[in-house]
């Protein structure tokens, strides 16, 4: 991107679809997953604090949290009302930041359900992205790294030629790329929990290689760049916390236990 110090603005996604409640939130009895109690704080609070403590993150907007809730996420953190469509929440967050800073080129997108995320991991990822100029940066974590740092995490993995990987929950994106690919972005987000369906959008050859575990990471980058009309870069992370989202009951209990220990 640039040799000069750069701070990125962040969009944290915490929205929900009332017509399709999150199973974990419904089981616990809260309207949206972002409000689940984790060690005495809402789930999304932990994610936001990692961003607030990172020196490479500037403004933070949380989309999907109604301002009327008056949720205290920290000084300077803004909340935007929920839209049931995940992509619309992202667009609303980016547009909110662009209205304040029309010169914003890149945004950091972060899922609100990664409470174990650490500031140093965010800094590492953003700094790693700043070293090379691409349009879209996507982190992945190898299975052995995930299981070493979070035993029993229960993540789903995709087998690549280089190993088995799961996707991370924060991305750096050139904002103009999203605006130019809204239709495809919507389809990808709809299938964000199903890598095989996502792969089908990139062609049968890609899907076949993925199914037999022969697709390489560079091949995946080239295909993604072609289909998305942008330059895509995969970042292999040695830090598993950026991929440790909370989707299942045992992951929620793990987060509660580890964060209670972290707080002492």
Task: Describe the 3D structure.
The protein is an alpha/beta fold and 264 residues long. It contains eleven helices and eleven strands. The strands form two sheets. Strands 1, 4, 5, 6, 7, 8, 9, 10 and 11 form a nine-stranded mixed sheet that branches. The radius of gyration is 18 Å and the shape is globular.
CATH topology (fold) name of the domain at 8-139 and 166-179 and 232-263: Spore Coat Polysaccharide Biosynthesis Protein SpsA, Chain A
- How many helices? The count is 11
Q: What is the CATH top level name of the domain at 8-139 and 166-179 and 232-263?
A: Alpha Beta
* Class from secondary-structure proportions: alpha/beta
Q: Notable features of this structure?
A:
11 helices; 11 strands; 9-stranded mixed beta sheet; alpha/beta; Spore Coat Polysaccharide Biosynthesis Protein SpsA, Chain A
Give the SSE map.
Elements: E1 8-13, H1 23-28, E2 37-38, E3 41-42, H2 43-52, E4 57-63, E5 78-80, H3 86-100, E6 106-111, H4 119-130, E7 136-142, H5 143-149, E8 158-160, E9 163-167, E10 170-174, H6 175-180, H7 182-190, H8 195-200, H9 204-211, H10 217-228, E11 232-236, H11 249-263
Parallel strand pairs: 1-4, 1-6, 4-5, 7-11
Antiparallel strand pairs: 2-3, 6-10, 7-9, 7-10, 8-9
Summarize the structure.
This protein is α/β, with parallel strands linked by helices and 264 residues long. The chain has 11 helices and 11 strands.
């Amino acid at each position: 991107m640039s040799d000069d110090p750069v701070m990125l603005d962040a969009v944290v996604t915490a929205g929900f679809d009332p017509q399709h409640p999150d199973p974990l939130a419904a089981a616990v009895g809260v309207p949206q997953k972002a409000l689940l109690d984790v060690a005495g704080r809402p789930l999304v609070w932990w994610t936001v604090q990692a961003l607030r403590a990172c020196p490479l993150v500037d403004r933070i907007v949380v989309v999907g949290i109604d301002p009327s809730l008056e949720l205290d996420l920290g000084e300077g953190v803004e909340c935007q009302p929920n839209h049931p469509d995940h992509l619309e929440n992202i667009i609303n967050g980016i547009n909110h930041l662009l209205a304040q800073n029309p010169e914003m080129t890149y945004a950091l997108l972060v899922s609100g359900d990664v409470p174990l995320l650490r500031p140093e991991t965010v800094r590492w990822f953003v700094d790693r992205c700043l070293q090379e100029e691409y349009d879209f940066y996507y982190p992945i974590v190898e299975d052995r790294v995930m299981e070493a740092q979070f035993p029993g995490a229960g993540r789903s993995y995709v087998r690549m030629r280089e190993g088995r990987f799961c996707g991370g929950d924060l991305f750096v994106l050139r904002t103009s790329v999203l605006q130019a690919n809204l239709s495809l972005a919507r389809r990808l987000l709809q299938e964000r929990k199903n890598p095989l369906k996502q792969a089908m959008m990139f062609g049968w050859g890609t899907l076949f290689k993925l199914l037999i575990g022969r697709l390489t990471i560079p091949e995946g980058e080239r295909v993604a760049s072609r289909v998305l009309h942008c330059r895509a870069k995969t970042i292999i992370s040695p830090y598993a916390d950026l991929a440790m989202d909370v989707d299942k009951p045992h992951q929620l209990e793990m987060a509660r236990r580890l964060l209670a220990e972290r707080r002492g």
